[in-house]
Design goal:
alpha+beta, Butyryl-Coa Dehydrogenase, subunit A, domain 1, Butyryl-CoA Dehydrogenase, subunit A, domain 2, Butyryl-CoA Dehydrogenase, subunit A, domain 3, 3 domains, three-stranded mixed beta sheet, 12 helices, 9 strands, binds flavin-adenine dinucleotide
Length: about 400
């Protein structure tokens, strides 16, 4: 039996997401060659579900109504359940879909009421893409060293935003998003602002990529973009409770979702082997079963890490462990799946080739593996990660079945 922390409500969500994910499979292959065709898929159940997620009911979000339950995707565990199943269908289409996405989590953490009304109001008008711009051309893992500048206006007029961002998903198709910028030196000098992409001085240029091509990662040029003071997120908070603090809180909450995407890619590779081969001998079945048990184990870790950050958004160490482990799994599972088909696997099986490329892309999202390992190490040194008790007490108290963690 497989370990699970999913109750009946979350199982309902997972089962619906599994059906939506199945629809993603065919659509995703086309988007890999033509990422701009994403607009043709807006009616898919999974795309509509992603557009509905992360818009709270109090701001008019209808959420998803399934089997007598309602879901708004405001928790990491809900997002992990949905994102895994959609990525199992196609991770590229999942990332290319409109919705609040990463910036929605930051807005939930940091925005005031007026800012939320503006942000969610825009999303409710029509399917709307958003972007989240943190990374800079020479500032990836070392995000605290970012150089994009936000110059405040002495007369209370609009601030001025100047700089460059890189690898920002969906930016060229987005209507609005968030940009991290510097108002002063050091980590406390970092702040985040809401930006409308139609504002003069904003330019997004798509970049070529090998994996997750549908996500259309972009380079941004910000050339004197005018930012009204009311678009500065956390404007009424102390510097210690906005910019980098909010960024860390946001990443902690997002990371189980990214880990779930990696698990979904691994599961897709696992699904493909028997389908592509038609039949397996006993050795092959044993190899595949072993991979399946490993996927179950990492999925369990991802769910536990989501429950942990839902309980306390500052506890991101388990989420980092889950993200590092899930990305390793995705890379190894996709390559292991190729081994079933021999040396021409990636040539003869474009689905596998895409899964290998996509797995590599997830490794870099929201912090590469080494950075996650550093976070876990720092947590261990600071005594924030229990060496003998990796599973938090509040998770163990939920509906737990048997265990086959690999
Ligand atoms: C598909 C995709 C979508 C993305 N979407 C977004 C987005 O929407 N918004 C956004 O802002 N960014 C986004 N990114 C960018 C992503 O966050 C960065 O790629 C990531 O932070 C790594 O930065 P880098 O590419 O500059 O690599 P680097 O920071 O140069 O890292 C390269 C390698 O060096 C290792 N390394 C770096 N520092 C250390 C260290 N101190 N110790 C040990 N090893 C280290 C890393 O683990 C990595 O293996 C996206 C990236 C991808 C691939």
């Amino acid at each position: 039996m497989t370990a699970t922390v999913l109750d009946e409500r979350l199982v309902t969500l997972r089962d619906a997401a599994r059906e939506w994910g199945a629809e993603f499979r065919g659509a995703g292959a086309g988007l890999d060659t033509d990422p701009d065709a994403v607009g043709e898929h807006l009616d898919l159940g999974g795309v509509r579900a992603l557009a509905a997620m992360l818009v709270p009911a109090e701001y008019g979000g209808a959420g998803l109504r399934l089997g007598g339950h309602r879901f708004h995707g405001m928790t990491a565990i809900e997002r992990a359940v949905v994102l895994e199943e959609l990525a199992r269908g196609d991770a590229g289409l999942m990332l290319a879909s409109p919705g609040a996405s990463m910036s929605g989590v930051l807005v939930d953490v940091l925005a005031d009421r007026e800012q939320k009304e503006w942000f969610y109001g825009r999303l409710l008008e029509r399917p709307t893409w958003t972007f989240f711009a943190l990374t800079e051309p020479d500032r990836g893992s070392d995000a605290t060293a970012l150089e994009t500048a936000l110059k405040t206006s002495p007369d209370g007029g609009p601030h001025r935003l100047d700089g460059r961002k890189k690898y920002v998903g969906n930016a060229a198709r987005a209507a609005l998003g968030v940009v991290f910028a510097r108002t002063g030196p050091g980590p406390l000098g970092v702040t985040a602002v809401l930006v409308d992409t139609t504002d003069p001085g904003f330019h997004a240029e798509p970049l070529e990529s090998l994996g997750l091509r549908a996500a259309r990662i972009c380079e941004l040029t910000l050339d004197g973009v005018a930012v009204p003071p009311e678009r500065v997120l956390g404007r009424d908070r102390s510097p210690a409770r906005r910019g980098m603090w909010a960024c860390v809180q946001t990443f902690n909450r997002l990371r189980p979702g990214v880990a779930a995407i990696a698990v979904g890619i691994a599961a897709a590779a696992h699904d493909y082997v028997p389908a592509g081969l038609g039949g397996l001998d006993k050795t092959g079945r044993d190899r595949l079963d072993e991979l399946g048990r490993r996927i179950d184990g990492v999925r369990h870790l991802v769910h536990l890490s989501a429950i942990e950050v839902d309980a306390d958004g500052s506890r991101g160490h388990l989420a980092s462990a889950a993200k590092a482990e899930a990305c390793r799994l995705a890379e190894e599972a996709t390559l292991e799946a190729c081994r079933f088909f021999g040396p021409r696997a990636r040539w003869d099986h474009p689905v596998l080739d895409k899964l290998v490329r996509d797995a590599r892309g997830v490794e870099f999202m929201e912090g590469a593996g080494n950075i996650q390992k550093l976070t876990v190490f720092q947590g261990l040194v600071a005594g924030k990660v229990g060496r003998g008790d990796p599973f938090p007490a509040h998770a163990a108290g939920s509906s737990t079945g048997g265990s086959s963690c690999g």
